[in-house]
Amino acid sequence: MAQVLTVIPARLGSTRLPRKVLLRDTGRYLIDHVHERVRAAKHAGRVVVATDSDEVLAACRTFGAEALMTRADHPSGTDRVAEVARALGGAFDLVVNVQGDEPELDPGHVDRLIELMRHTRAEMGTLAEPLDDPDEVAKSQVVKVVTDHHGRALYFSRSPLPSLGAAPAEGEPLALRHVGIYAFTPAFLQTFCALPPAPLERRERLEQLRALWHGHAIHVGVVAAQGVRGIDTPEDYAAFVARRR
Q: What's the pLDDT tens digit per position in 140-162?
């Protein structure tokens, strides 16, 4: 079994919902919920929260999470993950990046992604789930992905993808929703962060497009739909809190 490092980047100044990782209307910090889900995975290995905030660091101590301070000027969560991977040395064969706003992530998804990386020997991998609600497909905060027949990503977008203008083939979903989790080989993680940002990355505000722009493959594993997604807006968080009651 590969030695796995799982890092949860938790930036305090998120754009659409500031300070969201410290929201605690459930009685627990949002980042606590995410950490709990990751720790429940069988093969997550060492789990570390990576943050730019003393407040987040202190919050993590209250629920026993290992947390490390990183630079405040990272352009993306993946750059934060890469800093932690460098600081902890070369003992890991795989680095998993779980977004800090996925409090309902299925722990089995972490294990599924690790299995995908071992099976394909990919440099980079992620997950997606079937999406059949046209209203969700149309939302810009719901990131969609299309793949080739080998399961490699062709494109990610905040726009409807593929077009809603034609019905899918029988048995196919309207779209695939990208799940906020990535895995990298340690070497490619550092390579990825050294690549210059891509024009499409800036337009879509999706850092994974940097890899595709520069000609690197991203393998996508499809998992069963959960019917929930990450916390991106106040409405998302209110719905999450309601489900916890």
A: 989 999 999 999 999 999 999 99
In the chain, DSSP finds a helix count (H) and a strand count (E) of: 9, 9
- The amino acid sitting at 128 is A
- Write the DSSP assignment of 129-159 as a string of letters: EEE--HHHHH-TTS-EEEE-TTSBEEEEESS
pTM of the model: 0.92
Average pLDDT of the residues in 13-30: 89
- Domains, the chain, in order of start with CATH, read 4-243 (3.90.550.10)
Tokens representing residue 125 in the block:
């991998």
**What are the beta bridge partners of residue 94?**
4
Predicted confidence (pLDDT) per residue in 80-97, tens digit = 999 999 999 878 999 999
Alpha-carbon distance 45 to 57, whole Å?
20
CA triple 228-16-35, angle to 5 deg: 50
Residue of 245, 195, 183, 194 lying closest to 220 (CA atoms)? 183
Taking the alpha carbons of 12, 180, 146, 224 in that order, is the dihedral positive or negative?
negative
Residue 220: which of 163, 161, 135 has the closest Cα?
161
Distance CA 155, CA 245 (A): 37
